[in-house]
Write a structure and sequence with these properties.
single chain, mainly alpha, Four Helix Bundle (Hemerythrin (Met), subunit A), 6 helices
């Protein structure tokens, strides 16, 4: 099993992938374009999903390890106007990064993956959030017909997480 990315590197890559996501959204002809890899969603829906998820995880991290379920998303709803939506998306990412930095990698945190090999810590949440953001960045890029390869360290860590981490919980019935 390969060594996973260190916490500061995870945070840097979350920020980097989030920036790439917003760049794709910026260049889209419309927020109403259908996302082929998420056929029920438009690009707006994808931005809303990612932003609400970052806000929800920030609240979950802040609630501490005794929280019994993910906390409700906090803050304003996703605005429909593109510039405001992009600012909201950036603020959502910043909330997540701030919560992760404040808690640190070893701080306990409620997670949905229970007894898998991935610990129930903020470090594991950061790792999973990087993969979530990386996948949806690719979704946005595919929507524009301009998919970019994942950075090698993100792709390798994604395979590692899938094989030995949270996904084991889903398939070990």
């Amino acid at each position: 099993m390969e060594k996973t990315l260190e916490f500061p590197e995870l945070l840097r890559l979350i920020d980097e992938r989030s920036t790439a996501f917003r760049a794709a959204v910026t260049s889209a002809p419309s927020l109403d374009v259908q996302v082929p890899t998420c056929p029920e969603w438009t690009l707006f829906d994808l931005v809303q999903h990612l932003g609400e998820g970052r806000r929800s995880w920030a609240a979950t991290i802040a609630a501490g390890p005794t929280a019994s379920a993910k906390s409700a998303s906090e803050g304003p709803a996703a605005p429909r106007e593109r510039e405001a939506l992009l600012a909201w998306s950036a603020a959502s990412t910043q909330q997540l990064l701030d919560a992760l930095r404040e808690a640190g990698p070893d701080h306990g945190c409620w997670t949905w993956w229970g007894t898998s090999q991935s610990p129930q810590t903020c470090g594991a949440v950061a790792r999973h959030q990087l993969q979530e953001i990386a996948v949806h960045t690719y979704d946005a890029q595919v929507t524009l017909g301009a998919p970019q390869p994942l950075p090698d360290e993100v792709a390798l860590d994604g395979v590692e997480e899938f094989l030995f981490g949270v996904e084991e919980e889903r398939y070990s019935g």
